[in-house]
Structures
1.
Amino acid sequence: MNVPNPKALVALLDAAARGDITAHHEALSVVYDELRMVVARAVKREKPGTQIPAAQLCRESMARLLGDQILSTVTEAQFMAVASRAVRDLIAERALAASRQRKGPAAGDEDGSVDVLALNRAIELLSQVDPRQARVVELRYFGEMSAEACALALGVAEKTIDRDWAIGRAWLYRKLAGRP
Amino acid sequence: MTLNWQLVTDVFGGAVERSFEDRVPFLAEECSRHDALGAEVAELLAAYDQMGDFLTEPAVIVAEAKKDDGSQNVGRKIGPYEIEAVLGEGGRGTAFLATDARQHRQVVLKKIGRALACDDVARAALLREAKALTDLKRPQIAGVQGIEEIYGEYYLVSEYVLGANLRGLVESGPVDPWAVISIGRQVADALHAGHAIGISHNNLKPENIVFREGGSVSVLDYGLAHTPYLKANEALPAGDAVAVSIGYLSPEQLEGPSTDPRSDLFSLGVMLYELASGRNPFAAPAPAGTISRIKTLQPPALASVRSQIPAALDHAIMKCLEKDPQQRPPDAGAVSEALKALESLDTAGSGEDEDRSMSSPGATKPGAASPSASLARGPWFSHQLIVMVAMLVTAYLVWQVEASGSGVLAMIVAFTTVGSAAASAMMRLQWLIQSGADDFAPRLKRMMPLVIGIDLVASASLVLAALDMSGRHFTLGMVVAVVGTCLAVAVMFVEPAKMRTAFPTSAS
C-alpha cells in the first residue's frame, strides 16, 4: 500500500476515530508498516538485551509519518491509539517468531515479567467481554498513553478510562494467574 | 448463568473508588439480591489488590541478539520501488535489489546514512557527482541514477548489474596474468574517467567489481564512498567482518579522508596483486595487523610469488603499491596505458591463447566467473572448429563406404550420418560467425539442446555405420567408431563446460 501524505493520514485517522472501519484498517496498515521499519532499525541500533519502550517507537513512527507539522492533541491521541494496536501486534508477532525459533512455548518476557503471547491472548478474550476495556489496556500498556489521551482517542470521559483500566488489568491478572 | 458485564464493571468501579473499609458494606448493598455478581466482583477485587504494578510498566521491545539482515523488508514497497531481495550488508547500510514500478526495471537501493542525509551541502555535492558519473555513460561505471527522498529517508538508486563480482575469482586462487591485465586495464579506465571529472572511488575492492554479460567489467558503488564520509571511525571498524574491506585501503586513507585520486591506484594495485598471486599482500588475522601492514609492509615482488607473471606486469602492479602517492603512477590513465601495452604485447606474442588460459588454474575453473570472455572463448572457438572438421571428414568417409555398398540399412545410415553432420557443422559455423554479437550468450543457451540432439544422432549413426562397415573395412570402422564415441562425450561433457567458461552468464 502506498503511504499517504501527512494530511491524508490525519484525515484517515480522524475517520477511523469516528468509527470508519475501513479507514481504521487502512491507517493501521500504514502505521504497522512504518512501525515495523522503525523497530527493525531500533533493534539493530541497540545492544542485544536493551529494552526499548514501545511507546517511544510509536512516537518515532508518528514523527516519520506525520512530519514536523504541529499536531493537535486529538490527532496525536488518534495516531497513538492506532500505533498502540500496531505495536501490540508487532510484539506478539516477534514473540511468536522467537518462540518458534526456540522450538518451545514462549516462557515469558526476557525479564520474566509478562508472558507476551499469553497476555496477547488474554487481551483478545477481554475484548470479547468488553471491547473498550481491552482497548484501554492496549492504549495504556502498549502506547503508554495517559488517561487524558485515551479519553480523547476513544471519546469517553477520563473517569471511564480509569475504571476500564482498573477492571481490565484485574481481569487480565486473574486470567493470567490461571483462574477462570 | 451469564452476568451483565456492564453491571460488574459499575459495581467494581464503585468499589475501587471507595476505601478498603467501605467496600464491604457497599458490595453487600449492591449485590444483596445477586450472589453471582457479588462473587465475581469480589474475585476481581482480590485480583486488583494482588496485582500490584501489573501492566503499569509500559510494554517494551527487547533488542535480541539475532542479526537483523533486512530480510523482513523483502516484498515491501519503498515509494515506487518494490524490494525483491537483500543484496548485502555493508558498513554503510543494507543494499536492496528492487524493481522500479515506473520503468519496470531492476535497481539497487541503498539507504544513505543520517550524517549524509542531514547535510544539505554534502548531499547536493553527492547528487552532482552522481549526475556527472551517469552522464559519463561508461560501460565500466555502473550508472548512479540519483538520490531519492522517500518518506524522509534518502536512498541512492543505481543501476543493477547482473553478474558475478570479482570476489569469487579472487577466492578461487591465482588468475592467469592475461586476465589480470585485462581486468586491471578496464578498472583503470573506469577510474581514469572518474578522476578526469574529479571523482575518486575511494572504496575499490573486489566486491565492487562486477563482470557484465560478455565478460567486460563494471565498477560499482561510486558515490557512496564519498570522501568526507569515509571517516576514520568508519574506516577502521573493530569487527572482523569488515576487515576484508579495509585490506584495500591506501596508507593515506588509514590516516584520514584522502582526496588524492592516486589512493584509488593503491587499492587497484592491492586487487591486482591479489588476483595475480592468490592472496592479499596485507591480509592479517586482525584488522590492526592489516592496518600496520598496509602502512609499513613492502610486499614481495610478484615474480617471486608466482613465476609465470611477466616482469612488466609485476612492475606495473608494484608501482601502484608504493606507500607514497608521489611514487605511484601519475594517474589511472598511465596505469591503463601500461596495461594496454602489455595486452597488445601479449596478443602479438602468441596465437595459442587457449593453451595458456587452459593451463592457468584460475581462469577456467568451473563455477568461477570468467575473467574476460575473449580470454575463455579461445578454447570454445577451437572446440567448434575441431568438431566441425571431425564431423565433416568422418561423414565423408562413411558416405564413401556406405553409399557404395548395398542394402537399405547402409543407405539409411549413410544419409543420417551425412545429414546430421552437415546440420551440426552448419550450426557451429553460424556460431563462429555470430559469436561477437551482444546477445549471443542467451541465444547460444537456447540453441544448445538442439545441437546436443543433432550431435547425438550424428554420433549414434557413426557408431552404427562403423558396426556395419567393420566386416569389410575393419580399421576404418574402428576410426569411425572412435570418432563417434568421442563426439558423444564431447557434446555431453566437454562442450557445456567450455561454453560456461566462454559465456559465463549463459550458464546461470
2.
Amino acid sequence: MQNNRSSSKPDTNEQSSAAERRGRLIIIAVCALLVAGVGVFAFLQLTRPPAVTAERPPSNGAQAQGDLTVREDSRRLNDVPDAAVTFVEFLDFECEACAAVFPAIEQLRETYGDRVSFVIRYFPLPSHFNSERAARAVEAAAQQGELEAMYRKMYETQTEWGEQQLPKDDLFRQYAEELGLDMAKWDAAYNSEDTLQFIRDDFNDGVALGVSGTPTFFLNGQLIQPETLDDLTTMIDEALAR
Amino acid sequence: MTAPGDLLDRIYRFRQTDTWIFSTMLFSACLSLYASFVLATDAIRLAADPKVGLPCNLNEVINCSAVARSWQAGLFGFPNAFLGLMAEPVVITIAVASLAGVRFPRGFMFASQLVYGLGFVFAYWLFFESTFVIGALCPWCLLVTVSTTLVFASLTHVNLRDNNVFLPRRAHAVLTTGLRLGVDSLLVVLWLGAITTLVLAKYGAALVQ
C-alpha cells in the first residue's frame, strides 16, 4: 500500500496507510455522533415546555379571559375592587422615561385613585445593570405591604444609582432601612428565587404582550400610547364614561 | 482506482491544499464581514433613535437591541462591529492573494495568527458575556462568533501545515499527522457543538417562543 516515490510535498501526495484510514473513519464517526447528539439535545430542549410555566392564575373580573396585562396577584398601587377601569404600567425603575412620567402617574392616582385600579408590572430591561435589583428591592418591600414607599423611593433616587455598571444592592438595602422595613424579611425576600420568578413572570407577560420598552401602558387590556398627561386623562375619562 | 478508499484519500488530500484552506477562509471572512456590516449599521441606527425596532428582535432571548445597548457592545468606546469592518478585509486580502499563489513570509503569517487569535478571544468573551451576563443573544453576533471560529480554524490549519508558528520538528510532525487524520475538523465540530449545547442548555425553549 505504501507508495515510496519521493515528492516535494510528501504529506499531500503519499498514499495513506491502513492505520491512517482507520483513524480517519473513527474521527468521522465521532463527528457524526457529536452532531447527532447535539441535534437530539436541541430537539429535546426546544420542545420542552419552558420551566417558567405560568403557575399564576390569569386574571378575571373586569378583565377579559386570558388577558395578560393583569394577574390576580399583580402589584397594585391603588386597588379598587371591581374597578371599571384598570390602568397597567410595565415599568423599569432604572428607565429615565419611567422616572419622567412618574410625577404624571402620581397626579393621575390622586385624581382617579378612588375609581381606577393602578397596576404595575415589572419589566426590568436587561440593558439596565441595576433594574432587576431595583425590581427585587421593590417587590421585597411589597411583600411586607410597602410597595408604594419603595416604588416612590426608586424613582426619587434614580439619578443617584441609575446608568451605572456597579451592583447597588447595599444602597437598595439602605433604602429599605430608611423606610423602616423589617430587614430580616426584606433580605430574605430580596434574595429569594420566588421574588425573582415573580418579576420574570411579569416580564414574560410583557414580552408576550409585545412590550419591548418602558414605560408601556395598558388601559383595560388595550395598549395605549399617550403623548401627554392630557391624552391620558382623556383616555381614562372615556373609559370611565363607557 | 475508484474504490471508496481512494475517494476518501483524495478528499483528505484536497483538505490540505491551499485551494481548500484559503477558500474556506475567504468564505468565512466574507460572512463575518457581512455580519459586522449589519451590526455596525444597526449600532448607528440605534444611536440615532434608541427606540428603533430592529428586525433581529425576535423575542426576549433573541434580542439584538438588548445586546447592542449593553456596555460590552462598545468596549473600546465604539461599536465592536467596527473592529470586524477593519480586520476582516485584511483576512480576505490574505485569502485571495494566497489563492492567487502569493506566499507570505512565515513571520507575517505568524503575526496574523497572533492578531487573529486576539480577535478570536474577544469574540468568545463577547459570546459568554451575551449568553450569561446580558442574558440575550443577537443573531448577527452569533454569526460573527461562528465565522470567526472558522477563519481562526483555517488560519491555524495553514500555519500548522506550513509550520509558520516556529514549532520544533518533532512537534510539527505530530501535528501534521493530526491534520492528515482530520483531528482539526473534529476539534471544530466539538467546539461548535459545545457552544450550541451551552446556548440550548441555558435558554432551551425560550429561544423559539
